Target: GPI-anchor transamidase
Amino acid sequence: MRNHHHHSVSSFYQTGRWIDLNILLSVIIILIIISPGRVDGLDHSNNWAVLICTSRFWFNYRHVANTLGMYRSVKRLGIPDSNIILMLADDMACNPRNMFPGTVYSNADRKLDLYGDQIEVDYRGDEVSVENFIRLLTGRVAEGTPRSKRLMTDERSNVLVYMTGHGGEEFLKFQDSEEISAFDLADAFQTMWAKNRYNQLLFMIDTCQANTMLTKFYSPNIIATGSSAKGENSYSHHADSDIGVAVVDRFSHFVLSYLENMNKTSQLTMQDFVNSYSYEECHSTPEARTDLMERPLREILMTDFFGGVSTVEVSDSTLRLKIEEEEKKMDPQFSKWTGRVDWIGSTDRSDGEGQRRGTKDEKVVKKLMGGFGGEEHQRLVAGCLLILFVFASQLFASRL
Model:
């Protein structure tokens, strides 16, 4: 009896070892192909912009103009309105003091209306608050919030966050009634990173002592730049005698002028941009913090944040088709286990037995999932891992 059992085991290894090894290697290859992990800075599929003016009242006209100028620039360079969150604390276009109703200008000759007919303001007035801003960044908006008020980013998104208003050392005022601190921003960005809500992030701020808002960041893949050093003010560029107030800030005017010389195919890099900073132009000391970014600025295009992205995506259905083709090439014994895998990748399975077994198996698989991104990818990876468990168990049992 013992000899017969030994003969069966030997026969199994002689006839099946190569087939089982081939199956295991095939599954491992598929697993590697479909596992995205954390995407590096060279592979992003979409750009988003969050543009926020935190000031209200007519004398802060320039802060609204700063933000609308940035809005116009990123749209011109290819970021669609669906990927722009525009937050304006006040409506200068419809202010009764405005001699040119329905318009906002930042240029001296008033040839370019920044407001126009195609503007889409997502948060306005009292909606522009510290709470709503942090909820937007971290994805913790209230249930029922429309898509236009959501930041629908993922681990392949490059995100531009631009802020302008009144501030001081390590704080920025909202609506002249509350403040966001450098610590608040740092923690919000860390939450975004932990939740796979950005690939790379560019933070820009135009306010007094702006560079102090950059000091607390600690999350990877962030470039941060501000308009003024600690103890410095950020100044307006020029006033309009008919409008009666300053219409743009110096740092924002500098940035917008730089962007105006770019097109969608521009090869200007972030290093080129930072090298062009000028105290004479801004009357303050703009700085950039780059220690959190793995890639050097000379390898990062300006359009990686300010422009649109045109890519071809391979859908999950295509990946599933490739997996099915690989399955057909494998040993027939492989098919008897696919029933346990199919329902893990499906949300429609409703029979009790499948749910009971699936819950137990998924708990084991999820512990090994680590940082895999995307729900659909997670299901595919879970299925492949379970296949590995099954065949490993089969090989182990055959030795007994």
